[in-house]
Amino acid sequence: MVGVNKRQVRVGMIGYKFMGKAHSNGYRNLPYFFDTPAVPVLQAIAGRDEQGVKAAAETMGWASYETDWRRLLERDDIDVIDIVTPNNVHAEMAIAAAEAGKHVLCEKPLAMTVEQAKRMVDAVKKAGVVHMICHNYRFAPAVQFAKKLIEEGRLGKIYHIRAQYLQDWIMDPKFPLVWRLRKEVTGSGAHGDIAAHILDLARFLVGEFSEVVGMMETFIKERPLGEMTGGLNASANSGKMGQVDVDDCSAFLARFENGAVGVFEATRFAAGNRNGNRFEINGEKGSIRWDLENMNNLQVYLTDDEPGLQGFRTINCTEEHHPYAGAYWPAGHIIGYEHTFINLMKEFMEGIVNGTSPAPNFEDGYRNQLVLASVEKSVETGSWVKISEVDPS
Amino acid sequence: MVGVNKRQVRVGMIGYKFMGKAHSNGYRNLPYFFDTPAVPVLQAIAGRDEQGVKAAAETMGWASYETDWRRLLERDDIDVIDIVTPNNVHAEMAIAAAEAGKHVLCEKPLAMTVEQAKRMVDAVKKAGVVHMICHNYRFAPAVQFAKKLIEEGRLGKIYHIRAQYLQDWIMDPKFPLVWRLRKEVTGSGAHGDIAAHILDLARFLVGEFSEVVGMMETFIKERPLGEMTGGLNASANSGKMGQVDVDDCSAFLARFENGAVGVFEATRFAAGNRNGNRFEINGEKGSIRWDLENMNNLQVYLTDDEPGLQGFRTINCTEEHHPYAGAYWPAGHIIGYEHTFINLMKEFMEGIVNGTSPAPNFEDGYRNQLVLASVEKSVETGSWVKISEVDPS
Amino acid sequence: MVGVNKRQVRVGMIGYKFMGKAHSNGYRNLPYFFDTPAVPVLQAIAGRDEQGVKAAAETMGWASYETDWRRLLERDDIDVIDIVTPNNVHAEMAIAAAEAGKHVLCEKPLAMTVEQAKRMVDAVKKAGVVHMICHNYRFAPAVQFAKKLIEEGRLGKIYHIRAQYLQDWIMDPKFPLVWRLRKEVTGSGAHGDIAAHILDLARFLVGEFSEVVGMMETFIKERPLGEMTGGLNASANSGKMGQVDVDDCSAFLARFENGAVGVFEATRFAAGNRNGNRFEINGEKGSIRWDLENMNNLQVYLTDDEPGLQGFRTINCTEEHHPYAGAYWPAGHIIGYEHTFINLMKEFMEGIVNGTSPAPNFEDGYRNQLVLASVEKSVETGSWVKISEVDPS
Amino acid sequence: MVGVNKRQVRVGMIGYKFMGKAHSNGYRNLPYFFDTPAVPVLQAIAGRDEQGVKAAAETMGWASYETDWRRLLERDDIDVIDIVTPNNVHAEMAIAAAEAGKHVLCEKPLAMTVEQAKRMVDAVKKAGVVHMICHNYRFAPAVQFAKKLIEEGRLGKIYHIRAQYLQDWIMDPKFPLVWRLRKEVTGSGAHGDIAAHILDLARFLVGEFSEVVGMMETFIKERPLGEMTGGLNASANSGKMGQVDVDDCSAFLARFENGAVGVFEATRFAAGNRNGNRFEINGEKGSIRWDLENMNNLQVYLTDDEPGLQGFRTINCTEEHHPYAGAYWPAGHIIGYEHTFINLMKEFMEGIVNGTSPAPNFEDGYRNQLVLASVEKSVETGSWVKISEVDPS
């Protein structure tokens, strides 16, 4: 067995749909590619529907299952609680996990509200457990390489970031009113789901936000009731209609503490953009561009390139020179979406061994929540909102 | 001589730098490619510096020159006044031209203020002359083809536009404080110069704006004094420094009257983007993308394409099926920046013959000015501004 | 355990370097993504160096190891022999495996010579075992989708294929003379290694070759002796130099039985092309383009698209409509190089259950070998060579 | 009038269809963009059909016309003969022009045969006139910049060129049998028409060919009779059918005198490729890529770029650092197909003033003809042909 002589980190995961599949796969594959000081064990999975959770455990390779997530907290053969549930239960679960002394990995967004997020941070800190939030896109090698270039000062002072997360999976008015479109379960629509990713990338690469002004819109206001069926698919479960009470799109302007300005847009109504998570950052000495649909590449422009020879370089970040990439395949042999989770889990395992909480951790989740909340407040007031206005800490 | 037997439209142009070269070239080439009912004659050019204007007349093929632009108005061998001067004199010149019974083509932005723009519209209407504003990018075949697709309903109801005009020509802090960076001459920086273009494209393709909220920033606040030397080049003319009082970048969120939402950004600080005028429009039945740096192509996505075969099509708009393209070369033989002016001037000549003012005309210029002013007001107030708030009419 | 109640197919693998890692990973991940009627078990791995093979077994998750590959044939807990060794031992191993009644998966190229390949085909047929050759690139979803389009007649009669496999990993003259550059071990250079892949894709997508004329070149004729160290890396092991006796590049023109013509090129000296496996196919009704470095995308052009709207569509083959893609992640969430092996192994497992040998099998390997040999003969003679000339069967 | 005080070079052009339009446009625009020591005057145009040539003269701005091309030679107000006729009359006209003491610009390919080409070279040399052949694609700024990089040694020793000229304008079997498809008029099909361009680019950028082996095919063997109607359009003029006796495609492998190898392909049957003239050159220190459909860009890869930051740079060759580009518009404002002719004519005018024949001149046309003929001979013999074998000189 791979990693059989290493420290075993026994994971208990709550939830088992799209993100459950991605996380399980990440844990399974981590020891194959990375020589981490500890390896994850797929110990137990929890879900309310016994038939469903049992089948998921089998399909995804978990050793046992529970129908009550609180049972995972009681088991002493569980070291980590991994929360891949809808957003409205993140806080309750994460706090309980911390109080039970378990390390916690939580899906994004961290919480429904700033207040919840604050309590989650307090709980993990008080308990002294290791915590991370699963902003997996930070862990594309090209994104990590972008971070490295920025930290080395290769772009100089940052002037601009423009970031878009464009999807189109709910454009059909017949697409049902699943949990991801119900405010009481998800908190918000595209905003918390995908704007959260791009603002997290902005915080990672550019720095802290200082103020924002935003806009949201719901294009399809009524939909048939229904359920997610796996991945991002869904089916209507009756002829009944319900009101959509979350945003179909969210956009905002931003200023950062370091003087940079940003333009952000997230939508599920950009026809033809299946998963277009894109950003461009412009600094005084260069620029970078990234697009998730071509995630192995980073476009880099450097102003100190020789005149006449200046242009964006298309760098295939699959070389040993690029973060994480050396663990996989030879240069030019690309990796995919799922590997971002493996890379994140590498950091998580090392954090557990070292007793530190690698970024993005609950503090990042909290700071992201402040930005989400500031935009929401701005949408209500129609004016700019300073991040500090919504920060109770 | 090409077009020698056609109606001659005698042009008098005020100014002769970058735009003067582009306009002169447009007039010269129009009869070669299009069989218009009237052809432009490069009759006279005006500029204050005799040596400069004389040389320009010779280089660009104008039959005569004047050192006082008002002389052009007095000459009865001039039918059209073409204004390619800095923005602060557009209003005075255009109004005088209209009063002198001359047709008018004016560079963008139309004016320094809404009030000026209003007076300009009133003047051309009162005089009954034909008028256009030179938003040349509307006349790229790919943009015109986009318009056609939208008008035919191929994209359905429009949800989104995101447009960026990204340049980098003043990033060097040593780039001098030319007229394009001085508020008293230009009115604003990137905002009136290039944001004006993308909001004009949005009005052309999506519809009228209803409200906006914006942000501006000046990254380099002090520069050496200097002058434009041709194209977008400049040279410092002394060691003295001056304050930059216009924006280096401008960004704004927008709502349109038809329910669409928009995200706009214009900057001269996006390293590596020499002339990145780009937009993407998403509708309920499809999407389009365009980029000036690859201006012959239009990307088109149609939701009613067969499942599995859906994807953005890269359409090289050089076929007889594409507006204006049939006048040039066989399919796949691309045209360039300068041809957008030729196409615009085709419309202008036809307008003069027909006695109509083709879009974009001074009305468009005025409506664009309202959007520019609304963003400016929003930057002052920190809140959303309705277009109607700044519209005195 | 995933797939624990299914038929277990116990694999014994010979070799454990780059391809060993890719195959092991494929077996490990197959049951996670596909619900196949049988699942592979990583039973035993063989290699001459005990320390090396033991470490590999542990790292890659194999249950046991052997230092003599013939031991695998003797073990009755082994159902499949997977050969990932250098080319000069493929024939001996595959024939022995077949004679021992084991199913066989063999890396490409099948053999050193047509004669060897012939004996291999005869052996697997005589033994009645299931056999495949590991041309994994057939199994990119975009390539499979291309195949589907062609079979449905969407491209009509095929006129052209142009295919290139461009790499640059041995351009440095200091890169050592590893086994992949020694004729006695590998048979040929870029020719058998990567030209083999593109001609296999051509046979898959276009049809059988009828005649070829080719060219080879060795740019760096002497190199320091050394060894592969993993992936496509290597290190020199002494100051001694050796003669390179294989081709650095191979190119050939081809005619197909169905009247199509082809142009092929494989090289390891195309600076900047890390792994550029590309093809374009033109038919009477459309064209397709594919590039491994962006392997999730297929470019498709259809002549019956509406005039004016004709252009290559960029199709991200990550939807349930695309072969294999539905087993992974939602649309727009890309997969990578390694998943081509998983897809191939899905077919292999099903073949074993069904008693059939899915393409590409040893017959394909043999036919590919005929093309390789015909090009080699053509290089010697300087003239066109018919495939039938080198085919002893 | 532009350039009115400069030396006037009075042009007499024979032919007035697609190339006539492109050449006329080039002459007309040259003085507007370049300050050459001499300027072309559109003095007279010749064609057999009086109505047609008269209309063409008017449309394209020629001062007079002739219905017998030999009249141009007799006129002493003509300095240059520009030949834009079908290929079968190039030799007769060029030789007569030279004998009449006229400078000559001739469309490509230079001749129908090597023997004709030889006599043409002899004639211009004997007469001491200035001569050029119109391989306009050499004069794209990106191609000239590529040349500069190669000459500076930026790519080091050249290993590879692969070049394709892919079109699709005659794929429809109903497209008529125009002169471009009739051997007696054109000599060959795609071979002399577009393969000629890419082999000229190869000679320009890589060096002289030493040997070739080729293949040709005619996919549609019978077509309705008809005529070109302008550009690359045509119409059938009766229900009668005729045999196509030229190639629809041509492909060949090549070796160069400097040790480089090349792969070339030209076809008019590559659906979706309207005008895909593309090449990639790989050298020991870098690579370049160019594509006519995006002709302003050059992709450049340099092996001495910092590890991790290596990738193809997309250079928009519209800066003053790029050959010819400074004469047009600011950086990022692209030029098009027609400007390649303007740039070529700049060289031609300078050549006339200096008494030299800038490359590509008739010597280049002759050397190109040798390559064309070698490929043709190779198609007949089925074997490699050395260029020297077909060279009578």
UniProtKB/TrEMBL annotation, chains A, B, C, D:
<dbReference type="Pfam" id="PF22725">
    <property type="entry name" value="GFO_IDH_MocA_C3"/>
</dbReference>
<keyword id="KW-0560">Oxidoreductase</keyword>
<dbReference type="GO" id="GO:0016491">
    <property type="term" value="F:oxidoreductase activity"/>
</dbReference>
<dbReference type="InterPro" id="IPR055170">
    <property type="entry name" value="GFO_IDH_MocA-like_dom"/>
</dbReference>
<dbReference type="InterPro" id="IPR050463">
    <property type="entry name" value="Gfo/Idh/MocA_oxidrdct_glycsds"/>
</dbReference>
<dbReference type="InterPro" id="IPR000683">
    <property type="entry name" value="Gfo/Idh/MocA-like_OxRdtase_N"/>
</dbReference>
<feature type="domain" description="GFO/IDH/MocA-like oxidoreductase">
    <location>
        <begin position="144"/>
        <end position="289"/>
    </location>
</feature>
<protein>
    <submittedName>
        <fullName>Predicted dehydrogenase</fullName>
    </submittedName>
</protein>
<dbReference type="GO" id="GO:0000166">
    <property type="term" value="F:nucleotide binding"/>
</dbReference>
<dbReference type="InterPro" id="IPR036291">
    <property type="entry name" value="NAD(P)-bd_dom_sf"/>
</dbReference>
<feature type="domain" description="Gfo/Idh/MocA-like oxidoreductase N-terminal">
    <location>
        <begin position="9"/>
        <end position="133"/>
    </location>
</feature>
<dbReference type="Pfam" id="PF01408">
    <property type="entry name" value="GFO_IDH_MocA"/>
</dbReference>
